[in-house]
Specification:
By secondary structure, the protein is mainly alpha-helical. The chain is 75% helix and 0% strand. Helix 1 packs antiparallel against helix 3. The longest helix is centred in the C-terminal third of the chain and has 31 residues. It binds fe (ii) ion (2 copies). One fe (ii) ion binds next to helix 1 and helix 2.
Amino acid sequence: MNTRVQEAINDQIAKEASSSYYYLAMASWAENQGLNGTAKFLYAQSDEERFHMLKLIKFINERGGKALIPTIAQPPSEFNSLEKVFELLLEHEILVTQSINNLVDICLQEKDYTTHNFVQWYVSEQLEEEASARNILDKIKLIDGDKDGMYMFDRDLEKSVVLTTPDESSTGN
Ligand SMILES: [Fe+2]
Ligand SMILES: [Fe+2]
């Protein structure tokens, strides 16, 4: 496997792993605030990021490369407000999108069209995740701290968690 491409995917593995931990910390914070629907949503987001990581690990290994399992820094444990949580989540997704775009660039520079094709799945995924984060953030801003609004928001977010736990044994190709 092309060394530069492999390095870039290993970097991406580290980013997906830290996303998973970041959202896990947010989920745990929300649970402690009594926002059980939001917690459920964020726990599911954390699982999704782990799946993104696994998919990359398996891709490298199946192509005869060597995936590296990264060290993960401790995420924050305090988030101040629900609005702050989703602001940070959106900011984080934007950074991940930039990193995916960089990976796409490297694939093209190295003429690795197989990986380029594989990475397109992540390009669409980022589009969806950014849109979803923006949508949630807009709702929180509309509610503007109203208690009844918050209660309904939390309940709606719980309902939005679709139980489509990704099949981790497959790379989705
Ligand atoms: Fe991800
Ligand atoms: Fe994500």
